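Dissemination and training. As part of the outreach component of the grant, students in the summer workshop were shown how a complex can be specified as a set of sequence lines and then modelled as a single object. The example used during the hands-on session is reproduced here so that future cohorts can follow it. Participants entered these lines:
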Amino acid sequence: MMNEIKHHLTDALLMAYSAGSLPEGFNLVVATHISMCDECRARMHEFDTVGGAVMDAEAPEGLSDGSFAATLALIAAEPKDAIVAKPAKGDLPAPLQDYVGGNLADVKWRKVGGGVRQAILKTDKSASVRLLHIPAGAQMPDHGHRGTELTLVLQGAFKDETDRFGAGDIEVASEDDHHQPVAEMGQDCICLAATDAPLRFNSWIPRIAQPFLRI
Amino acid sequence: MLTETLTPTKTTTPTAHTALLASKALKQNKTQGDCTHEVNVTPANKPDRMAWVTHLAAIRDNQDQSAFAEVFGYFAPRVKAFLMKSGASPDLAEDVTQEVMATLWRKAHMFDPAKASVSTWIFTIARNRRIDVLRKQRRPEPEDLTWGPEAEPDQEDVLALQQESAQLGEAIAALPDKQRELIVRAYYGELTHSEIADATGLPLGTIKSRIRLALDRLRHQLK
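and obtained this result:
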């Protein structure tokens, strides 16, 4: 999947990921993008280095007297990490594989109309994250956002008013963006999308269906 | 340093010697409140990052408890301070700090000095524990590129990255108070990603350019 990635994570998302303040669903999209993108992996290391510098600059906080001995006791109880075998290489990036519980073929899709299918992944409630399967050439419902929406392309490509997004590309859409993505012809488009607020559809039918579809 | 002649149970039992070393280091931190360190002090009175890298290798290869005591003496009080600033009570911060330092021992074989300084690596362990304990959240991590770190990373790369990390720390320290505070608050978890995005004057370009070169080198190796 190492094609040219043109759309990357923003500094704010990477910094929040490094700081550990993103919702779980966003963490999943960020970790999946980084798994596909060397550029953002290097930028993540930069932000982790900033975190290390922040911690390093702290005025030391006194520890209790038995602290070191207690730590050695923890180590004595479990001296070395068990070496965990890497999961067999599947067709999904590792962090996503954990949430799907396997490969693309294991995803439990549900129809949402217009040939589009989705699978909601289980995370905490601070954001919702789902896989979307859009038939080649099909249109996604026109929608706006109340929060931030991240859309990462895993396969195929989509186009909207702003640009083309191919495998590995991530679109970061904010409150003001209204867009109507269309999957490119030739291959079905599979995306990982997360939002920290419910989407707002601009036609009444999806709006009625919204509570039922949990999107 | 413990030798092979000791029985397995003894290799993990605290010795008077190491406990003494640690308490010495702790006292030093308490009384001086500065980053002075007993050994490997550079003229600038800052611990030498390469010395920490050597300590980590001694922990990994020889289960060296005196090296661990020194790492503990310097970093544990900073981890605790960082956790308290991030919202943990003193008791919880103390417990989590012990877990973080125990994780450092257990995962010493995963530390890659061509990718991170020891303080960066400890920060990531502390951050992950914080998400786990304070936010009770899972944190998906990116896919590993390789099977752990290379056995012998190139010394030049290690040195370059360690120096760049040190310079980044200096660059952050030299920022105007307002800007530095924003960064620090972001890492305490006080700012959402939208607040970070909206924060004007966050000098990300300045602080990051310091480490760009070393990481660019790393990235090209990965390709």
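Chain A has one domain: 1-56+66-215. Students were then asked to discuss how this feature might be tested experimentally.
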